[in-house]
Amino acid sequence: MNPDKARSQAVQDQLNTMRLGREGPEITRLGLGTWVIGGPYEYGWGPVDDTVSVRTVLHAVDRGLNWIDTAPAYGCGHSEEVVGTALRQLGTSERPLVFTKCGRVWDTANPGKVVSDLRPSSIRQECEASLKRLGVDRIDLYQIHRPDTRTGTPLEDSWATLAELVDEGKVRWIGLSNVDGGLLDRCEAVRHVDSLQPSLSLLDRRSLPLLDWCTDHGTGVIAYSPLASGLLTGAFDHERVENLAPDDWRRKSAKFAEPALTRKLAVVDALRTIAGSLGHTVSELALAWVLSRPGVSGAIVGARLPGQVDDWAGAAGLSVSDGTLREIEAAAAQ
């Protein structure tokens, strides 16, 4: 094995892996999220440089992460295109698993706007378009992005279409995102739910009750926004929030508005004290907490620069004591 591959293998061993549910692939505890590199659209994160974005994806793979999460909605197809560009620079054996989604589409006559559409015909069109943008023959994990309340399509019909795509060899595993326990039950009755992608962080614990359902049904969990859209990186203060790019969706989000913002930044300050005493970063502690939740297979962490991957990649191999977890819980409860 050449030195570069040996180093990547050593990093991956450090990252650890876990099976995604009872039937899914072995995944590293952390995966790269690519929402942030999608570029301008109604939920964009400000300016991006595609060349840097490609380098970031490749760096994450070099660090040992073995899966990437994306979606056509991120930049109206642009995130998938960037991921596809990066994948084409890797050999077949080096390619990470690719997870993407369906159910959020855009109208070219209304630039930057996305709407829900989970009609079976729309899902099939989306799947073909994603395969082309990503440059792959099969999507490893295909997920329903969020329920569709616009077209009136029963979720069971949409889920059955994803099951058909598995049977046709276009998709390997299928999952759901942003759903409640009742919708999980309805889909499980049609075909096994391989994975759930909920929002989960120290600052957003609403999905914790769903973890028991997933454990009982052999469904893997990949948490999104484990760093609360950047708040738990330790790099934010009031000034940075005020100086976010004009087209960064966080400027309009209640999550970044007062009085909640001051309380959340106080939590970060408390975590910074704990992290400093242990020689870790705030990001690492926040991710370690998410990964310690029973039933969580992995967490999706975004980055727009290679160095940002380095800031949190070490969290996958971080062993946190029960006492430290209690300190983290107490800090988040203030």
Give an account of the 3D structure.
The protein is of the alpha/beta class and about 325 residues long. The protein is about 40% helix and about 15% strand. It is built from twelve helices and twelve strands. It has helices spanning about 5-15, 50-60, 80-85, 120-135, 155-165, 180-190, 210-215, 240, 260-280, 280-290, 305-310, 320-330; strands at about 15-20, 25-30, 30-35, 65-70, 95-100, 105, 115, 140-145, 170-175, 195, 220-225, 300. α2 crosses α3 (about 80-85). The longest helix has 19 residues, at about 260-280. The model is unreliable at about 1-15 (pLDDT under 50).
For the biggest sheet, the summary is: 8 strands, parallel, barrel
The best one-word shape is globular
The separation of the N and C termini measures: 50 Å
Tell me the strand order in the biggest sheet: 3-4-5-8-9-10-11-12
Using brief descriptors, characterize the structure shown.
two-stranded antiparallel ribbon, eight-stranded parallel barrel, alpha/beta, 12 strands, 15% strand, 334 residues
Quick recap:
This protein is 40% helix and 15% strand. It has 334 residues and is an alpha/beta fold. Mean pLDDT is 93; it is low at 1-14.
